[in-house]
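<context>
A single protein, sequence plus fold
<sample>
Here is the protein in question:
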Amino acid sequence: MTELSLSEQYLLLALDASAHKFGLPARQVMQTFACGAAVAELMLLKRLRLHEDGRLEVVDATPTGYAGTDLLLAELTAGASGTTIRKWIHSIYSRRRLRDLLFEASLRPLLEGDLMSAEQRKLLFVFASTRYTPHPGAIARIVQRIRAELLDQGTEADDKTALLVMLLDSSKLLKAYFFADELDRLRAGLKLLHERNRDRFGVIRQTRRTIDEIHVVMVTTASM
């Protein structure tokens, strides 16, 4: 499997209906988290900087090669740079057209790479909809990598895996793939990584703040 963006990996697991027996995350929530994954990746790649006051700054507009992530980078470069992360996530959550564009751009490589299939359907025989089905092998490889890097002894998670686990945990998707004791070990493993690699995890700490902001937006909007 070629290297996938954070958004692409997140969507593979978020759209895994076979694992989420009680239903997939709401589309609006899923799309917003996928956009948040793109923000996280842009910070990891040093295209974005998150200031202490929460402002996002584009420091490098060079494309990453990931369609969805680059679409978000272009949007930020065009006018959203300088906006606080919370306002930006709120904006994404409320702008369906932008969410749909980013969602479709992140799904395209998965469909073209046969990592996901799409089936056109009609709800109640009237409303058109699309059912996405991730390839089980693609799901298994992601979950196995998380196990190898954060649960198996002697292996250390890379930054991208750590961020993916944080995103999945924040959106309550990890429990579909790991037992309760494994979840505790995953969280403990992330904490240990932070303690051992304080310098390296500066960007991760910033990104954790971004993920926390996404969660705040989700909770705040749901309670309105």
